[in-house]
Write a structure and sequence with these properties.
Length: about 270
């Protein structure tokens, strides 16, 4: 009798272990472009991963990168399952890695080159050989500096930061002469003056790799598009400072990889 009980217990344990292994094997990783310091990035976007896990029934882990360079290297190596980031990187994955856009953040976004009253600037040319802060390449803000200054003999000095807020702090403390930040942030921080503004681009896109099953992609897309109307999603949206997601596909981002090509990061 004891032998039978032990056999049944062993079989039950083996089945449970197999189920756990199977669940872990189907877990997906979500990464977001490192626009914040690593700890802050995790606190801002892990709630999104947790929400999507509950809604889809698929375990989604959040992976926070500390810098853009490693993020870019791992992206090119095809290591990402799920990604939320800027248009030029979305287009790169769609064209080069077979990623599919499941949804996109509402609205469009531009970047602005800003200064302060103490460093009053009327024309971009006045910033040649001056220090400009921005996130590391290939962030849009950093690559946009190269577009602002197309002459290779007349360049500013770039100061890389871990977040847009850090870039603004350096500007406010007078440690740089200008910063490149998302245009909406200009209204948040008083005393900033816009020198130049980029074109409007589609906001961040949420993509899935070819390794993500079709049914999981569908469930993720449905969950993302429903977040704005779901009270249970309020905390996740607030933490990430995203108003909501809207329908989108690869065609919405087609052509934006050109920024990577023009600055030598892709071909």
């Amino acid at each position: 009798m004891r032998i039978r009980i032990r056999i049944r217990t062993t079989l039950a344990f083996a089945m449970l272990l197999g189920l756990l292994v199977q669940t872990q094997a189907h877990a997906l990783d979500l990464v977001v472009q490192p626009i914040l310091a690593q700890k802050q990035l995790k606190s801002s976007f892990k709630p999104l991963a947790d929400y999507l896990s509950k809604k889809t029934g698929t375990k989604i882990n959040f992976i926070a990168y500390s810098n853009f360079l490693r993020y870019w290297d791992d992206m090119r190596a095809g290591k990402f399952d799920l990604v939320l980031d800027a248009a030029h990187l979305v287009d790169y994955r769609a064209q080069k890695l077979g990623h599919e856009v499941l949804a996109k953040v509402e609205d469009k976004v531009s970047f602005s080159l800003v200064t302060t009253e103490e460093n009053s600037v009327i024309d971009v040319e006045e910033l040649v050989a001056k220090r400009i802060s921005a996130l590391a390449p290939p962030s849009r803000g950093n690559l946009q500096i190269d577009k602002f200054f197309p002459n290779p003999l007349r360049q500013p000095f770039k100061t890389e930061t871990r977040s847009f807020r850090e870039a603004i702090k350096l500007l406010q403390k007078g440690k740089v002469h200008a910063s490149v930040i998302p245009t909406p942030m200009v209204q948040v921080f008083p005393g900033l003056y816009v020198v130049e503004t980029t074109d409007l681009w589609p906001h961040m896109g949420f993509t899935a790799s070819q390794n993500v099953p079709v049914d999981v992609k569908a469930a993720l897309s449905e969950a993302l598009l429903a977040m704005k109307e779901d009270k249970a999603a309020a905390a996740a949206l607030k933490a990430s400072q995203i108003t909501g997601f809207e329908k989108g596909d690869n065609s919405d981002y087609r052509g934006f990889m050109r920024l990577l090509v023009d600055t030598g990061y892709a071909n």
